[in-house]
């Protein structure tokens, strides 16, 4: 088993994550883990794919639970000795008409979409084998210019996120500042947008750039790629089924990044990739117009 590839997709019991697992299973060159925070929902989705003639494996993984992440890490280490592909897909989004206070939306959305994703990476990255591919599922909302609140404060925030030498601690304090400001209802005057989802996804995108930079420093010869992707506007529960793309179409760009060939100089590296697979300049734009 140690010689075949090991793929992991977080939050893959439904939506785009499920379709990424489906596409990776079709590669037929290793073990693909469909993971879910709820075991029953996960196993049902495994059964669905089995009926299609595919053979995903299942493991429970709640990225919002450090114990669950540690158990999965230990399982991967013992069973496979490493990891080749990690797709950080799990996320949440409050509906636009939600009645939850903004302070709560900010805290919960950033905790799951940013902090939990980062924790999961911190635990699983030591398992990454040479030529590993990490795909952070961001969003069009993760585009830097979506930090578009009151000026000049928002431009200053953009500058801090865009710093090519941004340290993880600084990124964490930016996110904490947003959450704290949302609690104090001062976020707008400080230039933050009125969307917790935007801040969480911009932060995931900024994290991607840090992760690639650090891997280049610590493992320069291992051809490990970390990219962030906008999967398109997709027909899922998250969008209340308003997106025009099918989940399989939404899986196309993330899957492409997950299986980039080894040692190819043309591969995107630490890049923001749109659903049509075009590389987008995360800092300077322009904003692509496609879905
Ligand atoms: N759909 C779009 O148009 C769109 C556009 C841009 C970006 N995205 C991004 O694409 C990704 C997938 O979105 P989607 O539309 O497929 O959403 P979705 O249908 O709502 O699926 C989200 C998945 O994440 C899981 N999840 C949430 N919290 C988790 C946790 N703590 N631990 C493990 N899994 C957790 C959910 O599990 P449960 O079933 O247990 O809730 C579900 O499986 C997300 O990162 C999203 O932000 C989507």
Index terms:
single chain, 291 residues, alpha/beta, Rossmann fold, 8-stranded mixed beta sheet, 8 strands, 43% helix, globular, binds NADP nicotinamide-adenine-dinucleotide phosphate
Account of the 3D structure:
- With 291 residues, this protein is of the alpha/beta class.
- The protein has a domain at 5-94 and 115-139 and 204-280: Rossmann fold.
- It has helices at residues 15-27, 39-51, 66-80, 102-124, 153-162, 168-184, 196-218, 247-250, 252-258; strands at 5-9, 30-36, 57-60, 83-88, 128-137, 225-229, 272-273, 279-280.
- Strands 3-2-1-4-5-6-7-8 form an 8-stranded mixed beta sheet, with helices on both faces.
- The mean pLDDT is 96.
- NADP nicotinamide-adenine-dinucleotide phosphate binds next to helix 1 and helix 4.
- One of its GO terms (molecular function) is carbonyl reductase (NADPH) activity.
- Belongs to the short-chain dehydrogenases/reductases (SDR) family.
- Keywords: NADP, Oxidoreductase.
Q: Which fold does the CATH topology of the domain at 5-94 and 115-139 and 204-280 refer to?
A: Rossmann fold
Strand proportion, as a percent range, falls in 5-15%
Uncertain stretches of 5 or more adjacent residues: none
Number of strands: 8
Shape: globular
Chemical compounds bound to the protein:
NADP nicotinamide-adenine-dinucleotide phosphate
Oligomeric state? single chain
Radius of gyration: 18 Å
Mind telling me which CATH architecture of the domain at 5-94 and 115-139 and 204-280 this is? Answer: 3-Layer(aba) Sandwich
Which series of helices and strands comes N to C? EHEHEHEHEHHHEHHEE
Largest sheet, order of strands side by side?
Answer: 3-2-1-4-5-6-7-8
Provide the CATH top-level class of the domain at 5-94 and 115-139 and 204-280. Answer: Alpha Beta
Q: Structural class from helices and strands?
A: alpha/beta
Q: Quick one: biggest sheet? A: 8 strands, mixed
Return the average pLDDT rounded to an integer.
96
**Helical residue percent band:** 40-55%
């Amino acid at each position: 088993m140690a010689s075949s590839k090991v793929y992991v997709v977080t939050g893959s019991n439904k939506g785009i994550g499920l379709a990424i697992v489906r596409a990776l299973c079709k590669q037929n060159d290793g073990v693909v883990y469909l993971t879910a925070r709820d075991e029953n929902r996960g196993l049902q989705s495994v059964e669905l794919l089995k009926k299609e003639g595919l053979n995903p494996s299942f493991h429970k993984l709640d990225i919002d639970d450090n114990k669950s992440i540690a158990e999965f890490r230990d399982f991967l280490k013992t069973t496979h000795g490493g990891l080749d592909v990690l797709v950080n897909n799990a996320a949440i989004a409050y509906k636009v008409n939600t009645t939850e206070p903004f302070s709560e939306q900010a805290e919960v959305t950033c905790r799951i979409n940013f902090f939990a994703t980062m924790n999961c990476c911190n635990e699983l990255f030591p398992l990454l084998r040479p030529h590993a591919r990490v795909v952070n599922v961001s969003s069009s909302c993760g585009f830097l210019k979506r930090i578009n609140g009151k000026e000049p404060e928002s431009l200053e925030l953009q500058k801090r996120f865009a710093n090519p030498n941004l340290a993880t601690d600084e990124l964490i304090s930016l996110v904490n500042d947003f959450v704290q400001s949302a609690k104090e209802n001062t976020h707008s005057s400080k230039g933050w947008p009125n969307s917790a989802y935007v801040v969480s996804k911009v932060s995931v995108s900024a994290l991607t750039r840090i992760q690639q930079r650090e891997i280049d420093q610590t493992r320069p010869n291992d051809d490990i790629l970390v990219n962030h992707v906008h999967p398109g506007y997709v027909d899922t529960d998250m969008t209340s089924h308003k997106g025009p793309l099918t989940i399989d179409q939404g899986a196309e760009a993330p899957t492409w990044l997950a299986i980039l060939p080894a040692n190819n100089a043309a591969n995107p590296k630490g890049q923001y990739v749109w659903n049509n697979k075009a590389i987008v300049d995360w800092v300077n734009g322009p904003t692509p117009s496609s879905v």
